Every structure is written in structure tokens, then in C-alpha cells.
């Protein structure tokens, strides 16, 4: 656990305060590891509290803020069906290793083990994220949450309900939400839903929709939350391109 708060303090902005800051503070004090003394955890928690008091209000998000927001929201989704599935936990861990490397991911997952034990106000957490994070970054959060829910191969009704609730609190409209959701469902009309158009859309409307969606979901729009998140953004962007190619083939244009 050594240097844990150094990792937190260096990478966090807005998430050091507010309801998310309170959750992280609780997690630092509640994750008990057999190799770390209670006194060391208490020291880490006190150090975190000092950093929180010193940190000025921040209006924009950082890579660390995005990382912590993922952890907190992921804990809400995983617990939503009343069963903490190991496959979902493994997905979070593997995704974090892919994003941040093993050392940083291990720190994050240690913190996650504390976060998931805490009762979290979905509304309060989402309001804090919404006030500081761009719309593109919030869309990326929803994409990640569907990936977690699908990790055990089935998105349950309770998981989909809580992700929809999170999207609503994050001010993500129904069309954007439906587009991301369709990326994880193998439905006949998924390509139309991904491009946010109706099945009777004209070829010209399909082309316009693709250009609009490609611009909205372009990875370059996520530069503010760090390069480490761009690969995940490219996966979402690829779904847009695949949907367009599928319709080009079906409609022969």
C-alpha cells in the first residue's frame, strides 16, 4: 500500500472532493490487507484527507479522475443484480491492466475492493462527474459499463436498468444511450441503432448519420482524459464504422 496516496494525489482533480472523494477516503480505510498494518492504512487515509483539504476546486477532468469514476460506477453496476460475479471482476481488472499497466492497475483494483464494499449514491456520484467531465468522456464511461455487464455473457435486466439510470444522471440522451447499448447486442437492426437512424432511412440519411456519429465518437475528443484511454475509445469508434459498412453491404451503395 506504500505510496498509495502519492498515486492518488498525482492523478486526481475533481474526484478528490465531493461524494466520490468521500467514497475513496472510506475505501482507503476499509481495505485491509494481511501484509499491511492498520496503522499504515490510517496514515494513508489521513494523508488523503490532507490532500483533499488542500486541493482547490477543479472544473476539468484528468486521466486519474476518469479512472476513479470508472471504479465507482463499475462497483454500482456489478452489485446491481445482487451478485458480484467473478467474471465481471476479472473484466474490470484485465481492462485496467490493458489501460494502465499492471502496477497502476493493481493499485486501482486494491482501491476497487474497498469501493465495492461501500454504499454509493448513484445520483450524487453522477452529478459530480457530470459537472466536471465532457460529454464524450461520459459516453465512454457508459461504453465501459456495458462491457462490464456483458463480461458474464448476459446483460441482466437489473444491470441494464442501472446503466440507463447512470446515463440519465450523466445527461446522456436516449439516442446516444441506445447507440452504445446496440454495440453490445447482436440484433438484426443493431447497425441502425448504432447510427441512431430508423430502418427506413434513405442512403443519404445513412451517410449523414455516419459522418455525424463518426465525429461524435472520434477518439480525438477524449484527449483531456489521457492517451491511455484512446484504445478503448477506438473500439467504440470501430463499432460505428462496422455498422456503416454493414449497411453499405445490405443496401448496396
From TrEMBL:
<dbReference type="InterPro" id="IPR007791">
    <property type="entry name" value="DjlA_N"/>
</dbReference>
<feature type="domain" description="J">
    <location>
        <begin position="190"/>
        <end position="252"/>
    </location>
</feature>
<dbReference type="Pfam" id="PF05099">
    <property type="entry name" value="TerB"/>
</dbReference>
<dbReference type="InterPro" id="IPR001623">
    <property type="entry name" value="DnaJ_domain"/>
</dbReference>
<dbReference type="Pfam" id="PF00226">
    <property type="entry name" value="DnaJ"/>
</dbReference>
<keyword id="KW-0812">Transmembrane</keyword>
<protein>
    <submittedName>
        <fullName>DnaJ like chaperone protein</fullName>
    </submittedName>
</protein>
<dbReference type="InterPro" id="IPR050817">
    <property type="entry name" value="DjlA_DnaK_co-chaperone"/>
</dbReference>
<dbReference type="InterPro" id="IPR029024">
    <property type="entry name" value="TerB-like"/>
</dbReference>
<keyword id="KW-0472">Membrane</keyword>
<keyword id="KW-1133">Transmembrane helix</keyword>
<feature type="transmembrane region" description="Helical">
    <location>
        <begin position="7"/>
        <end position="28"/>
    </location>
</feature>
<dbReference type="InterPro" id="IPR036869">
    <property type="entry name" value="J_dom_sf"/>
</dbReference>
Amino acid at each position: 500500500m506504500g505510496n498509495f496516496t502519492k498515486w492518488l494525489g498525482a492523478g486526481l482533480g475533481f474526484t478528490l472532493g465531493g461524494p466520490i472523494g468521500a467514497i475513496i477516503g472510506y475505501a482507503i480505510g476499509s481495505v485491509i490487507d494481511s501484509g499491511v498494518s492498520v496503522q499504515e492504512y490510517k496514515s494513508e487515509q489521513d494523508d488523503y484527507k490532507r490532500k483533499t483539504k488542500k486541493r482547490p476546486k477543479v472544473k476539468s477532468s484528468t486521466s486519474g479522475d476518469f479512472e476513479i469514476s470508472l471504479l465507482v460506477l463499475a462497483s454500482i453496476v456489478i452489485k446491481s443484480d445482487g451478485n458480484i460475479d467473478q467474471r465481471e471482476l476479472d473484466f474490470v481488472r484485465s481492462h485496467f491492466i490493458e489501460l494502465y499497466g499492471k502496477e497502476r492497475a493493481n493499485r486501482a483494483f486494491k482501491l476497487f475492493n474497498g469501493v465495492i464494499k461501500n454504499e454509493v449514491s448513484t445520483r450524487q456520484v453522477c452529478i459530480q462527474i457530470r459537472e466536471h467531465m465532457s460529454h464524450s468522456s461520459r459516453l465512454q464511461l457508459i461504453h465501459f459499463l456495458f462491457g462490464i455487464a456483458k463480461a458474464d455473457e448476459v446483460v441482466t435486466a437489473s444491470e441494464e436498468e442501472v446503466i440507463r439510470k447512470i446515463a440519465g444522471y450523466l445527461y446522456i440522451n436516449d439516442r446516444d444511450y441506445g447507440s452504445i447499448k446496440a454495440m453490445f447486442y447482436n440484433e438484426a437492426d443493431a447497425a441502425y441503432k448504432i447510427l441512431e437512424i430508423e430502418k427506413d432511412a434513405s442512403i443519404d440519411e445513412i451517410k449523414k448519420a455516419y459522418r455525424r456519429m463518426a465525429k461524435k465518437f472520434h477518439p480525438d475528443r477524449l484527449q483531456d482524459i489521457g492517451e491511455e484511454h484512446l484504445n478503448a475509445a477506438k473500439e467504440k469508434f470501430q463499432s460505428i464504422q462496422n455498422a456503416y459498412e454493414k449497411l453499405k453491404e445490405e443496401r448496396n451503395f
